[in-house]
Amino acid sequence: MQTMLNVALPKGRLGEKVYSMFEKAGYPCPSIKENNRKLIFENEEAGVRYFWVKPSDVAIYVERGAADIGVAGKDILLEYEPDIYELLDLKIGKCRMAVAAKKDFRDDMGRTLKVATKFSNIAGNYYRSKGRDIDIIHLNGSIEIAPILELSDVIVDIVETGTTLKENDLTVFDTVVPISARLISNKASYKFKSAEIDRLTQKISEQTEEQL
Ligand code: PRP
User: Is the pTM higher than 0.85?
Assistant: First the structure.
C-alpha cells in the first residue's frame, strides 16, 4: 500500500504558491483547485493528503504529528520554537522582521523602551542580545498604530513591501531577521516516512533552485 504524506498548507496567497510547487514536484491534487470550503484534499495515487490551515497553526499540526510535513514562515518558527525539523528554505514568502518607529524617534537609553509586537519572543531575544531593557506590549494585529498613539516607542513586525509603514508615516530602524517560507517535518514522521519525505524534499528543492 502507498504511504500517504499528510501535508499542512498555509491557507491564503502563500499557500497557493506552495501548492503549485508541490504540484510541479509531482504531488498534484486537482480537486484542491475546486475552490470550495473544503479543507482536506487527497490524491491516493500521488501519496499525498493536503490540509489548509491557518498559517500560524501549521507548525502546531506538524509538531503534534497531525501532519507529517508542512510549510511555515520562519517568523512563526522563531516565535514559537516548535520541536520540528526544518528541511528546506522554499525561498518564497520573502519579507523581513524589522524594528520600526516614527521618523523622528530617537532611542533614550535612560528609559525602558516600549515595544509593541505580535512576536514577543523574537522581540525579547533581539533586545536581550543588545542588552536593552524593554517593556513588551503584545498585540494581535494592526501593530503600526501603536507608535502613532504612543502606546509604544517602536514596533517589531513583518515588513514586506513597506507600504503599511509608509502609509502610517513610520520607518524601519533595523532589520531583526530575514524571513521566508520553510518546509518542516514532524520528527517521528521523518524517521518512519524518511524515504517519502526525502524524495519530496529533493523534488521541491529542484523548484527552489528555479526560483533563484
Ligand atoms: C503584515 C504585517 C504588516 C504588513 C506588512 O500584516 O504585520 O502590517 O503585513 O506588509 P507591507 O510591508 O507589504 O505593507 P498582516 O496583513 O498580516 O495583518 P496584521 O495587521 O494582522 O499583522
Answer: yes
